Amino acid sequence: MDYxxxxxxxxxxxxxxxxxxPYPWWNPEGVLTVEGYQSLLExxxxxxxxxxxxxxxxxxxxxxxDRYALExxxxxxxxQPWKDSIAELQERxxxxxxxxxxxxxxxxxxxxxxxxxNGCSVSPHCDAKRKLxxxxxxxxxxxxxxxxxxxxxxxxxDRGRFHHKSAPAFEDFDRAMPSVALGNRSxxxxxxxxxxHGVREIHCPEGRLRKVFIVVVNSNTLVARxxxxxxxxx
Length: 234
Prior knowledge:
The protein is α+β, with helices and mostly antiparallel strands. Helices cover about 20% and strands about 25% of the residues.
């Protein structure tokens, strides 16, 4: 089974992505094949595998990003569909697509899942400088999620007013553009000094979870590779 619709990805004009405002972003439907998406929904990792990330202090006075988190690593006990889909994401074809979009020669990828319960949010922030961007795959459908509960990633436009080392509230931004986060949708965006984004507080029934799988696209320059090796050795 194929999980990624490479023909769809490769037909996308990178110029459209790079010229998007307030920073590069794209919220397509159908990056995953219909069969592949359904198979991944049916075999998601159980929340019992996840670490609890609640009440953790963030830099610059930003509110905690509360959620359950699972980091991918070789040997992680996953269903076969998830093993196969991550193998596709690690292939040269997907990385070549990302390099074209971000205008770089090489990227380094890592992967994680976030499940978010009622009452939690992701406060406005810009990602770390080591990142080129992120590709968020949404993993809720009409059967298990009501759009009125929230869960959309907001692309936030500050018109360059805020330093990335600050803690503005959602209400402080000039514009907030919500992604479509239900069904076979994903959100791909580039990191820059003003790439503010977040998720407002979720209001869902107890026991329901906002579920996403995130491909983190990292710089793979010589300096970035040396920093990763130093961090692993520390």
